[in-house]
Amino acid sequence: MMMKTVNQYIDHEHINWGLLENLIRNNISSVPNESMKVRKFSEGYSNHTYLLSFGNWESVLRRPPFGEIPAKAHDIKREYTILSKLHGVYRLAPTPYLYSDDPGIMGRHFYLMEKKQGVVINDVLPDTYGTSELAGPAISKGIINSLVDLQKVDYKKANLMDIGKPEGFLERQVHSWVKRYSASKTHDAAGVTELEAWLLKQIPLTVDTTIVHNDFKLNNLVLEPHDPGVVNGVLDWEMATIGDPMSDIGSVLAYWGEVGDPDIGISVVTNQKGFYSRREMAELYAKVSNRDISQIEYYVAFGFYKLAVILQQLYYRWKKGAADDERFARLSIPIANLFDLANLTRLNKIL
């Protein structure tokens, strides 16, 4: 017997929850015969996620954001395919349950995956962690260890060779991000010309290749609720590829806010006492991974630049009326700050 959907009006103008419930019940035999409940997670600037529960059974739905989106962005099918191969060899990757591109359900493709149990930290620590002095060191170590564990996965044995082209990875990345900024440019930002020239000229030689998450950051980790040093899951795999592992630690450090940082447009918790500094994080990564970090400034500067471009793309959409999220209207300040941080990093004034 079909049970009535609870909270069926969450984004109901975009999603037919009744059709979705039918799809789930027809394809996942373990779903109990109880009412479906829906809760929307914080959507941030990226894909939208929802918690679906049928009694004690839970799953997470991921779909692209509403409105106009850049070509090739938010590739949900690719993310589903990657997780189908990765979850068996990297325990922190969620198990995917089903994928659908039925336009009658929500007009966009989407997939359901396992809900990793735990907490996701944005700008507030759970009360169970105590003070930041106690939790900060454990969280700092946990994110580095979980990243290095991912980089240890043999992507060839996992049959993940087709998710990226390691040859020329970093060069393609830099040129691609410079092109993205040019396509979304709304004004001349200070220091960008010099920064881009440096990024294009100083591309380091890639020493080895691994799986690259491409968005590895604290709020994409699910932590154990009573032990901040234990990572239960890593989320957001849509941009995963094969390439230079140093690009991921560069992104980690770009998102890793410190005391004294200006507004960078994202939630930050790591600027509290107890958390490692960016330099300490880099040194821990070098120790755990046994990798040379002598050119870490390049990767961190590129990390700041990429985050600036992501925010610029959102600001551009708002500027031309393709997005009505008023948060986007205020992004010009953090964008400028991120370009400044990138330039300070390339001048060895950050790490």
Fraction in beta strands: 5-15%
Distance between the termini: 60 Å
The number of helical elements comes to 10
Helix/strand order: HEEEHEHEHHHEEEEHHHH
The CATH topology assignment of the largest domain is: Aminoglycoside 3'-phosphotransferase, Chain: A, domain 2
Estimate the helix proportion, in percent: 25-40%
Uncertain runs are: none
Strand order of the largest sheet: 1-2-3-5-4
In CATH, the homologous superfamily of the largest domain goes by the name: Aminoglycoside phosphotransferase (APH), C-terminal lobe
Record field, number of beta strands = 9
Largest sheet: 5 strands, antiparallel
How many discrete structural domains? 2
- Judging by the overall fold, what is the CATH architecture of the largest domain? Alpha-Beta Complex
Class inferred from helices and paired strands:
alpha+beta
Q: What top-tier CATH class of the largest domain fits best? A: Alpha Beta
Task: Write up what this structure looks like.
The protein is globular. With 351 residues, the chain is an alpha+beta fold. The protein contains 10 helices and 9 strands. 38% of the residues are buried. The strands form 3 sheets. A 5-stranded antiparallel sheet has the order 1-2-3-5-4, with helices on both faces. Strands 6-9 form a two-stranded antiparallel sheet. A hairpin with a 2-residue loop joins strand 7 and strand 8. Helix 5 (169-184) runs parallel beside helix 9 (296-319) and helix 9 (296-319) packs antiparallel against helix 10. The model has no long low-confidence stretch (mean pLDDT 93).
